[in-house]
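User: Sequence in, structure out. Go.
Assistant: Echoing your sequence, followed by the structure tokens.
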Amino acid sequence: MGLKITDLPVANYMTPYPISVSPDISFESVVDFMASRGIGNLIVSDNSIPSGVLTEREILQCAVSTDGTANKKVKDIGSQPFLKITPDTSVLQAAKIMISKHSRLLVFADDDKLVGIITASDMVRAFRKTDDTPPLDKVISKKIYKCSSNDSILDAANQMYEKKIGSVIVTEAKKFGIFTERDFLVHVLANEVDMNRPVGGYSSWPLLTVKEGITANAAASIMAANNIKRLGLVRDSSLVGVVTARDLVDAYQSGYSTSNPYVD
């Protein structure tokens, strides 16, 4: 028997003591560090005071901007704002805050001591402990952004930047791959690859797919088993959608109400 979805404390599922970075660190140093550690975010802190969350999204945006990355520092890149929660906040409450406020969540003890970060992937790991089986049809986007494997890396990255999306589907004949912000960071930027090269060689192949209609818990189990954050949905061999870890969080939280001042 699974755990109750309302009884999952953030303290048990957060990533404890996330790595912080000074705003004066260079863009190149941050890229190398995140790529080598497989880290998707860093806490930007000035004198031990968190000011924002630097993610792969800001890295990509900076890399494709017209003024480039030369001599750029973390403080020039920008970061995402965050909301504070506590270790005893329930994961369900945290999920509702994340979805309703479109915000990153940092975990603080005694209001000013940073003790963790909880991400969509952390939340999905928690929700998998329950017996809940929410449907996905109301939370996934059916809009699929694609590019050819012969398109340039820069074209793919620009599409992600302009549409504010974390990935594009890469097509080659009847095959599907995926190019993500993580691929851009690890395979392209960290190796100083010419962004005019074809994106297909730096994408993840193949895109793992399942039949449309899969429930959130089944999708979560497949993602966990394959260490991925996106799953293609197919109908009659046609790709009709992509479900992300954040979509799964949305599916789980949408079926419940919870009282919290941040969610009003």
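User: And one key feature?
Assistant: The first helix runs from residue 27 to 37.
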